[in-house]
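WARN no homologs supplied; continuing
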Amino acid sequence: MPTAANPNPSGMNALNPRTAVGLNQTRDRMYLVTVDGRRPGFSEGMYLDELGTLLDSLGARNAINLDGGGSTTMAFDYYGDKSAGGSNLRSQLVNVPSGSERYNGTSLGVFAPQNPSFRAPVALPSTLTVLDDFEKGSQGRFDSGPGGASQTDGITLSSDFHWTGQESKRGFGSQELNLDFDNGSDGTGRLRLRHMSGGSDPGTQPGNNSPLGKTGYVGFLLKVGSEELNTGDFTASLMLDDLNDGDAGPRIEMGIPIDVIADGEWHLYQWNLADAAMWDSFVGGNGVIDRANITVDSVLLESPTYRGDAEFFLDAVSYNSAGDLSALVPEPSLASVVLGLIAVFTGSRRRR
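OK structure emitted
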């Protein structure tokens, strides 16, 4: 337990607010501790041995209990928005004092220069989040066009990607992808679209895309518009940039390709971020979602056998850290089921 010094022995056995400072064993970490007290129902304070136990649990090995009455105040100074004009220094009180300000106060302060390499933790979505919804005429982050990636092959630069209000699964719009076939630049006839999110090189521009966590599901809704396509003619995948701070080159992971269903209906395609079996390496990746900065890189549509133009509709590129994306495709309501049964019954009566 930390050794403690207190010039007032009577305070050792009293339940009081406390202020303490401690150092760890290697003396390279300092702990400043404030314990509020004399506030029944919120915090009544600590006995000195309880304070010692708290400091020990934090990692302190030597500590001192300072005069800690109701006037004890802990605050942080930080720099706010300079655009507001004047001083941008702000202060924030982080405890709940039980007494009052003193005319003559004693302060213990810590001053440190700003660390230029520090990056604040990124706030990740905690619920189902539609990253790009293609509403109100917007193509969201998927606005780079057919020439956005060198891995795109087998389509002309005149292929047309645009917003449409004629098709949607959620809301009132989607993105229409019209692929004009050109037999492939490598002569194989392979048709592949790497449809970029956040610019032509999102791996070097991660700020253009929303951050994702390492758990949950990511995916999108897709509909085939071409009547001549059959299920399995194309596969769909989602590519993720999976980077650590300071990574120089791209590190791209690819979701295992899923056969595209060509029945003229909307379908959900999703991948579990924590399931290594659902991922493979693409450029510079390792087939595992395991780095600090994860963002959507692109949607990949590919066919090694189909020869011809193709039309797709893309909607609701989404992420859910807490589960899958099934909420994007809600089950039919009871009213819809009843109406469907009535239609079937009516049709069968007419055929008699």
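Confidence is low (pLDDT under 50) at residues 81-86, 333-346, 348-352.
OK
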